[in-house]
């Protein structure tokens, strides 16, 4: 397919919402509160915001410009911009990461689907012991597999409809809906008795908690949450129109993503603190064990409010997860479609089947395959560690070196300033961040943490 025939997103708002859809996901609503809870609250959030500003945004702009300039999938983009070099491996690492992330992300997305169904049918509110409910569910030999497969299939349905009619249309409906649900939930959560303690946890930083691990976690979380470091946004940017302002788009996406993450904290922690005996550092179980408890205990006298609160929350999780799985699927589908000249439908089917297969292993690693450990980690944990803590930061580092050092400065300037039409106040600073700050910061955080 020549560059001119390639599909584009139809509007600027579509571009922002699709990219924000990729960024906003379980990373914000499930992983972020869990990291905040385990890393001591407000201080973690501050380190996180620094990572977003000085590492995440520059890398995101770079991904955008690589994608839009090459007008190719992530796997092919580096071969267009740096033909005959080894840079292609950065793209290949991105495609590999897409398969791996979708494999394990699909599992948690499947849990959200199960919890949405259980909320709707009332079986969640009937349960007495949510730890048991959760452990029974994730440890079952077929349920999580089924829900994971259903979720990836749902993703498949949107993907085969294409970029404009599938991804863009879907994001334009889902993202406003998602923001609306979040706002309603924040108001509900604030109005709970005892919520001020939860707010204090989020707003009063304790810097004695900040160490190397916290910084590595914050960086990994920033890359994961913003979907940067593996070419998701690079693939989306290959469908951007010429008139999209890359810096503004990256700024808007980062802002929406951070806003949603912090709001998710504002939903979860005040709610958790409003029920005595629940703790904010419950880890991955926070939204699946702690919150159902909150929904039930806090609304004991008015159960229908608890029912609606809980249903809305899990619908929110499903929507957020879906716009992200779509973007992961697209990375791999676009690669197979363009590289091997498969039809879009065939390419999508291959991706769906491979990810479902990986998903089976990850889903079962909470039950049947729990005994299989590598470096003490279950298959699921290993996928999470290898992608979020290794591949994304490493990808981010190479992407910044590529745009900062390798790529012709003229190309960077043309893309970022729209052929000189836009005045970009911090262009020099942006290059400085890419050349020095991002690579050095990522490398040192890595070395410090992984080899100590
Ligand atoms: N950013 C998504 C989230 O927050 C996850 C994701 C990571 C999506 C990497 C695409 C690429 O849930």
Automatic annotation (TrEMBL):
It comes from the Bacteria. It comes from Paraprevotella clara YIT 11840. It is a multi-pass membrane protein. This is Sodium:neurotransmitter symporter family protein. Keywords: Membrane, Transmembrane, Transmembrane helix, Transport. One of its GO terms (cellular component) is membrane. It is found in: Membrane. The chain crosses the membrane at residues 12-30, 42-66, 87-107, 145-163, 175-194, 214-240, 252-273, 304-326, 347-370, 390-407, 427-447. InterPro entries: Na/ntran_symport (IPR000175), SNS_sf (IPR037272), YocR/YhdH-like (IPR047218).
């Amino acid at each position: 397919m020549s560059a001119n025939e390639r599909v584009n997103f139809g509007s600027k708002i579509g571009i922002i919402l699709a990219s924000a859809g990729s960024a906003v996901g379980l990373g914000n609503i499930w992983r972020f509160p869990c990291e905040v809870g385990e890393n001591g609250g407000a201080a973690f959030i501050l380190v996180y915001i620094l990572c977003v500003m000085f590492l995440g945004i520059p890398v995101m702009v770079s991904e955008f410009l690589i994608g839009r300039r090459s007008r190719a999938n992530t796997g092919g983009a580096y071969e267009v911009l740096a033909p005959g070099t080894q840079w292609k491996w950065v793209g290949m690492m991105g495609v590999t990461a897409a398969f791996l992330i979708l494999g394990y992300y699909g599992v948690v997305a499947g849990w959200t689907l199960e919890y949405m169904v259980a909320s709707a049918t009332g079986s969640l509110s009937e349960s007495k012991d949510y730890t048991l409910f959760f452990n029974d569910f994730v440890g079952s030999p077929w349920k999580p597999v089924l829900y994971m497969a259903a979720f990836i299939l749902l993703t498949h349905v949107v993907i085969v409809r294409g970029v404009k009619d599938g991804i863009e249309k879907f994001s334009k409906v889902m993202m406003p809906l998602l923001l609306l649900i979040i706002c309603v939930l924040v108001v509900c959560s604030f109005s709970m008795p005892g919520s001020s303690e939860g707010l204090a946890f989020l707003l009063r930083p304790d810097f004695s908690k900040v160490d190397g691990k916290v910084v590595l976690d914050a960086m990994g979380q920033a890359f994961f949450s913003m979907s940067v470091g593996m070419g998701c946004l690079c693939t989306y940017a290959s469908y951007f129109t010429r008139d999209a302002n890359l810096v503004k788009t990256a700024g808007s996406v980062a802002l929406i993503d951070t806003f949603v993450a912090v709001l998710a904290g504002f939903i979860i922690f005040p709610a958790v603190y409003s029920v005595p005996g629940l703790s904010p550092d419950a880890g991955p179980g926070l939204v699946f064990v702690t919150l159902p408890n909150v929904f039930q205990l806090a609304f004991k006298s008015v159960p229908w409010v608890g029912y609606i609160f809980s249903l809305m929350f899990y619908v929110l999780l499903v929507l957020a997860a879906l716009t992200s799985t779509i973007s992961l699927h697209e990375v791999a589908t676009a690669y197979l479609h363009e590289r091997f000249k498969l039809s879009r439908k065939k390419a999508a089917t291959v991706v769906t089947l491979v990810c479902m297969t990986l998903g089976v292993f990850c889903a079962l690693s909470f039950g049947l395959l729990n005994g299989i450990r590598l470096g003490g980690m279950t298959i699921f944990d290993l996928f999470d560690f290898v992608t979020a803590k290794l591949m994304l930061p490493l990808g981010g580092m190479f992407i910044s070196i590529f745009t900062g050092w390798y790529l012709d400065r003229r190309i960077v300037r043309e893309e970022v300033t729209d052929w000189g039409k836009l005045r970009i106040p911090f262009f020099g600073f942006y290059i400085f961040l890419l050349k020095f700050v991002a690579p050095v910061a990522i490398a040192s955080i890595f070395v410090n943490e992984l080899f100590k």
